[in-house]
Amino acid sequence: MTHRHSVSCLTLALLMTASPLMMAKAEPCPATGDLTEANCLYAQGVEALEKSHDQATGNKLLMAALDIREKQTVENDTPEQAEQYLALADIYRALGRSGKAEPMYRKALHVIRTVKGPDSIETVPVVDRLALMLMDQGRFVEAEPGLKTSVRVIEKEKGVDSPDLIPTLDKLAWICGAGHRPTEANAYRKRIDAIKAKAQ
Question: Per the structure, how many domains does the chain have?
């Protein structure tokens, strides 16, 4: 389940729904040299990798986005700093540079917890993206605790039947299945089905 030069389909689906960076544009990116251009380049780079399977173009666009992002300066322990770390992590991840992405995800998570609190709902998408990267590397044991924490955070903020629980529960079911824990995996899947039934 390792992807060296592109994000996995599951990762792409998450980024498309959870990341403000993923606003794909068909037209050329504006040459503004700021975050608007960086975000556009990132979106087009991921699209080139995943939809067109054009690694050369995708990597070129992602490197251009990375160059802009790395030149940004933000204040320490601010939401802007967390967003910067998260954006860099996503770019490194898409480039297949997990060794660079992981510390950026963890720094983003640390800043959010410092600024917003350890149980902030804003930690959930960061934990999920970090977990996806760890899962792609087969590091299921490391991914599981953060996802379980996310479940508790979502339950507290949005309720035990919130559809927002489904992506996290699905990852936990996958981890349990991969770890030969079918009883736990089935329990997560049954809970997902119950949430979907209530939402109808």
Answer: 2
